[in-house]
Amino acid sequence: IWLSLVAAACTGAQNSDDSTAVTASLATIEPISPDNSGSSSESGVKPSPETGDTAQGGDQTATDQPQGGNPPAEAGTNDTSGQSSGADGNCPIYYTETWDGSTTQCWLFEDTFVVSSPDQDEIHMNLTDTGALRMRIEINETYLYLPYSQGYSGVSITAEVTSNQVNSHEASLFCGFNENGFYEVRFNTAGTFAVYQFDTARYLQGGNPYIDLIQGNSTLLRTGNGRTNTVELICDQSTITVNINGEQEFSQNIPGSVMDGGVGIGAISHENYPVELDFDNIVIAQP
After folding, report:
1. Greater model confidence, 37 or 253
2. What strands, in cross-sheet order, belong to the sheet with 21-23?
3. Is the separation of the CB atoms in 40 and 126 below 8 Å?
4. Long-range contacts for 121-126 (Cβ within 8 Å, ≥24 apart)?
5. What is the Cα–Cα distance from 187 to 61, expressed in whole angstroms?
6. CB 9 within 8 A of CB 15
7. Cα 176 to chain centroid, rounded
8. Each residue of 117-154: pLDDT tens digit?
9. Mean pLDDT, to the nearest integer, of 80-95?
10. What are the beta bridge partners of residue 285?
């Protein structure tokens, strides 16, 4: 069972003088109907526009991190039997998500959280005709996260991610999603990747919640518009490992870390937009 986000913290962020607004969920995003296999217009999800795809500016990636973010919800207890309670009471622990079956409703669209400017109309999610989940952001400096409904004591999450617009985006896979924060890998088709820890305590103190574990270039990433990368994030006890297109890019032990919690996917825009990322064949497995 996932708990609600910390209401007091969210209220404090929304009432601050910071130019970013933090919301606990997106009113424009509804759970996707499990029988919606293609057309986004049949679901409650706001479809991406078919026009207006011109990128704004060049492809220089911004390095500033948002000063705050939603404290994450807490994942439920892992049930290794293979099934556990979720959106429909029958969400698998380990499986491959292809967005064409009943497991789609196991993703917590109502608990999607975002660090963004106030205009949530610039954020869209829908299923594409090719069967992927598309995240589209039409505003700068926006951090969008979508969690899955299960919790883990050790987990691997892999996704095929295709970029359709500017290369200065960041796709995200995250794990260890609990009341203390989470760990994430970010990557893009400009050829860079990074690993961060989100620290809820820093957030509650009004500081930058993102702790930089590594930033750099990766020759393993396929670069350029329209390219697809398969990235795996492994959180196992106190070790984080990142594999890109079948080869290990990063592995580090983080003493004292607690990585028990949920997993999910995300999309991030910086100074250039639109960002449009398609997520498909998401494999959640034992590490």
Report:
1. 253
2. 21-23, 113-116, 142-147, 262-269, 170-178, 181-187, 192-199, 210-217
3. yes
4. 121/28, 121/46, 123/26, 123/28, 123/29, 124/28, 124/45, 124/46, 124/47, 124/48, 124/49, 125/29, 125/32, 125/45, 125/46, 126/40, 126/43, 126/45, 126/46, 126/47, 126/48
5. 11
6. no
7. 13
8. 556 788 999 999 999 999 999 999 899 999 999 999 99
9. 62
10. 156
| Preceding peptide of 71 cis, ω within 30° | no
**Cα 136 to the center of its chain, rounded Å:** 12
Higher model confidence: residue 45 or residue 162? 162
Q: Which residues pair with 24 in a beta bridge?
A: none
Please give the Cα distance from 206 to 93 (Å, whole number): 35
C-beta separation of 264 from 50 below 8 A: no
- CB atoms near residue 217 (< 10 Å): 11
DSSP 228-239: EEEEEEEEETTE
Name which residue leads in pLDDT, 25 or 184. 184
Task: Give 107's DSSP letter.
Answer: B
34, with CB counted inside 10 A (0-12, 13-18, 19+), is middle
